[in-house]
Amino acid sequence: MADGYTVLEYGTLASSSTTDITFSNIPQTFSHLEFTFSGISMMVQNRAFVYLKINDDTSTVYSRIGWALENGLNRDVQSWAGPMNIASIQGTTAQANQAGVMKFDFVNYSSTVLQKTGFALSTSTDASASGNMVGKQNAWSYGSTNAITKINFNVSSGFKAGSTYSLGAWK
Questions:
Q1: Residue 168 lies in a domain
Q2: How much is the average pLDDT of 12-37?
Q3: 124-134 per-residue burial string, b: 16 or more CB within 10 A, e: under 16
């Protein structure tokens, strides 16, 4: 088993037609995963929602509880089957080239005993044209004990070319 933090994959998106960032065949030799992203969506509004899907599963219950700091503190609790709306990032009408940032932790992702849980942090602009930042934090769960071997992040409008991402793991 590897010690410390290891970057498994990283990249810069070359095309604005990319709607999915997918990591397949994730090695099971680590304990925890971390996904980071910096970029903009191609959604023609101030922000776009990012959806998380694990192991191509659209039936298992995904749950989220979180808060957003936007014109006051808002709390949100949701559960549903299928990909989970987990974060938001800038859209094309946000202030010029202002990138959103996302960070996801997948704790005990290789366990076949525990249901999967983790944290998601993201920033985006608010719904106005002022460019005010919104911070979001979510704790999430995926109602399955299967080891995570594939992760998909989706923005239906596409991610802007030049956006960067990485998937790392640690013991």
A1: yes
A2: 92
A3: bbbeeeeeeeb
* Tens digit of each residue's pLDDT (9 = 90 or more) over 27-41: 999 999 999 988 877
| Total domains present in the chain | 1
What does the block give as tokens for 39? Answer: 């970029």
- Specify the long-range contacts of residues 63-66, CB closer than 8 Å, at least 24 apart: 63/140, 63/141, 63/143, 64/138, 64/139, 64/140, 64/141, 65/138, 65/139, 65/140, 66/120, 66/136, 66/137, 66/138, 66/139
133 within domain boundaries: no
- The sign one gets for the Cα dihedral 74, 79, 80, 83 is positive
CATH code where residue 58 lies: 2.60.120
Domain assignment present for residue 156? The answer is yes
Range of the domain at 103: 1-67+84-112+152-171
pLDDT, tens digit, 9 for 90 and up, residues 76-104: 666 655 566 666 666 666 666 667 788 98
| Confidence check: pLDDT of 121 > 80 | yes
